[in-house]
């Protein structure tokens, strides 16, 4: 179904050349226009949520009010905390994330209102309430999973009502003392939020929501899709590949050595992780935003230098190879490097951060779906034999 125009998605549109536009605005546009934390440089993800839902850029006061509301709703129900704490450390963080979000169904105002027989014209209000409640709790869920699996199980900080969303997430993860990491979280959560409605996580959330499942169940389904290696987990796989490349090249990250390695990779039938995209035909603007962040904050970081050299070599190799429609890097080829630099080195957790961000894109659309009365999604399917019959009829002119 790649390329088939069959969905309505208000928040963003992906242009093959320009890249993503959020309500008509490019990533440089939102970096310039959206409100920032006092003294901050990167846009606040809660401001992007406002933009995606309403189509309008919020004021600083509106953004601050939303930040405060999200902070006020951040506490988890006891049974959700227990579910996270009882999860074995060998269970992938994304599986734990999905389980915890599903368990939040107990808090669904939409499910309760539907059970009471609320009129469908009111669905959007309860979907909105659930969405805000869910967004508010995601940082605490993500942080608890991270601290349980990789550290001592204790949160180093609690949500502070005076801080923005990205800052609170960074604090609970244990990186609150680094102002640059706070800025990275704000940028990361913003640019990973939305990428049209046809990608697996966005489409799955929309599809499950079209059956009038609550935002909690709908997002949990989307997170299960995001966990796949062909979607959100790709950022983990890119980093693993970078470490393997570095090891096999024995530290020689010259362009000549990288080019030889890339050809060996392609000639063996493997792909170059982090390069290519189903829609894009130029460098992913999300990659560019992260590259500019790295050039400003970590220009001499060895892993960044490796990624930069690959960026200069890979497009030419892939173009000459001739089997890749888009030889340019996508968002996954850079995000892990930034996290590594600041000490968040546990690659299996990266997709959880992606999941927190993706909620900012899919939940506004879910609210809009209910507001306009979007029906259940139910495309027609055929068996192979039926498709053969269809093609024969077309060829026969029937």
Can you tell me the CATH architecture of the largest domain? Answer: Orthogonal Bundle
- Quote the distance from N terminus to C terminus: 24 Å
Lateral arrangement of strands in the main beta sheet: 1-2
Characterize the largest beta sheet: strand count, sense, and whether it forms a barrel.
Answer: 2 strands, antiparallel
Helix content: 55-70%
What is the total tally of β strands?
A: 2
Which fold does the CATH topology of the largest domain refer to? Citrate Synthase, domain 1
- Tell me the β content: under 5%
Structural classification:
mainly alpha
Write out the CATH superfamily name of the largest domain: Citrate Synthase, domain 1
Q: What is the mean pLDDT?
A: 95
Stretches where pLDDT falls below 50 for ≥5 residues? Answer: none
Shape: globular
CATH class of the largest domain: Mainly Alpha
In total, the number of domains comes to: 2
Order of helices and strands: EEHHHHHHHHHHHHHHHHHH
**Count of alpha and pi helical runs:** 18
Radius of gyration: 22 Å
